[in-house]
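WARN retry 2 of 3 for item q-0093 after timeout on previous attempt; input resubmitted unchanged.
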Amino acid sequence: MREWLRYLPLILMISIMAQVFAIGAACTWRDATYLFRHPALLWRSIAARNIIAPVAAVVLIKTFSLLPAVALTLAVLSMTPVPPLLLRIHLSKGASTEYALGLLVSQAVLAVPLVPITLQFMDWAFHRQASYGADDVALLVVRSILAPLAAGMLAARYLPVLGKIVRILLLAGAVVMLAGVVPLLALEWRTIVTLAGAKTIAAFAIFMAIGTAAGHFLGGPNDVNRTTLALATSSRHSALAIAVAIANFPDQRRPVVAAIVIYLVLRAILNIPYLRWRGPMQLQPEYAGPAPQTKVGSGAATGV
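OK item q-0093 returned
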């Protein structure tokens, strides 16, 4: 049955592409370019996700005596862009997606130069040689984010009916993902249990707490933007993290995947208190007056 593991990346990629296609069908080009038209917010997101998060990861790795696979996982997670499925809550609640989609697109584009640069920073911090070129990053983010997003936007323009079945498309993608993840848990539960020690949980929890706090305080005066950036900073693109880790340390494939499963479970749990604290909020245009009331629910914690 372990032969099935070789198909896991393909299953997850199909799931992510299907859900990003659905997100694109519900969005516009104006949404996608939102942060590039608001440079102050763009720089805030870069500070939270691409500066504070990697520095926090280095400090935690140097502070805790982590297992090699856990240290590697924390390092590569800290340099990845926004997980595409973070937008699911905005679509499911009917909220405006311009800030969240702008964050997804800008981080995907910026990942091309920033991931290799951050790897150089990690090399300097840990005196190890790792590499993952800009062309590799570009291929992955185009294939998993930008191409299906653009395809969804283009398809919705000529087939307006797609906008009415976005939730169905999202559900189909989630089912495919579940079909891939459940067998993984069954096959790798021993590795997961072995890695899930107190130091691992503490390091991941502190990393996510720092990310949430950084995103919250750098999200600007708009309440929904604060919550979105907080969740986006504590949420990392696990598929890209696995790709970077395996490219540099292929012998760590199974423990890295197991460590990422631990991270995903912890993130889903630890986001709940923050979301409850934030509670129902009004979705407001940037620096403008109030707009129709929209709730931000716990579904935002499920991005991959």
